[in-house]
Request: fold
Amino acid sequence: MDNIWLNGALLPAAAARIDPADRGLLLGDGLFETMAAQNGTIPDLPRHYARLTNGAALLRIPLPLSLPALETATRALLATNALQNAALRLTLTRGPAPRGLLPPESPTPTILITTAPLPPGGPLRLITSTIRRDETSPLSALKTLNYLPGILARIQAAEAGADDALLLNTQGFIAETSAANLFVRLGGTWLTPPVADGALPGIRRAKLLEAGRVREARLTPEQLFQAEAIFAGNALSLRPVTAIDSRGIPQTNPAELS
Reply:
């Protein structure tokens, strides 16, 4: 990592400092957005900003950064790191505060933006995790810093020799993978689990729904093995699922969804 953007300033990553009392570090009190840059800009930045704004409002974290200011920050960070195509992560925390769960009345949020190479593509082998997605929690629709369920699920996948884990909700319906939405073709129609079943409202997912390329539908694990094709997608990539619990999944051209 070269330079980062931290609270309004570009600086070398090695020189960055997060307050030891920051609630994001101590309590996971914050949100993040992962974004894809193309040719030096982020085409879906307004969508990411809207989702960040909604999440911050729910958590009651002030967002001291406008959309134009965020666009300026991301362009400057990409330029200083000489990047055209990259993954960016924006991390928003409630900032430093005294010890205790109750947040301060007037917090000073921390905003950090970093860059990284875009992840490799390629097929995915999934396992069904024993970790459940709690669709009843309002946090299931947010990209919070409390990511331990996804981490545990990904550890299970790695221990089983798979690439990622499939998460079911508390009722046993499909939610998503540890880091991506699912898109399943059944009977010639592309389907994706609803947010009410624990699916994160992903950016790629929203665009496909708006374009009429997919529709929401409750899905069972058994239906996945009847699928004509399955993809896992997020803002950074769209990858075919080739196996679930060592059972093969048919393949199709990703152009159907891209």
Remarks:
- The longest helix spans residues 45-59.
- The CA atoms of residues 173 and 222 lie 10 Å apart.
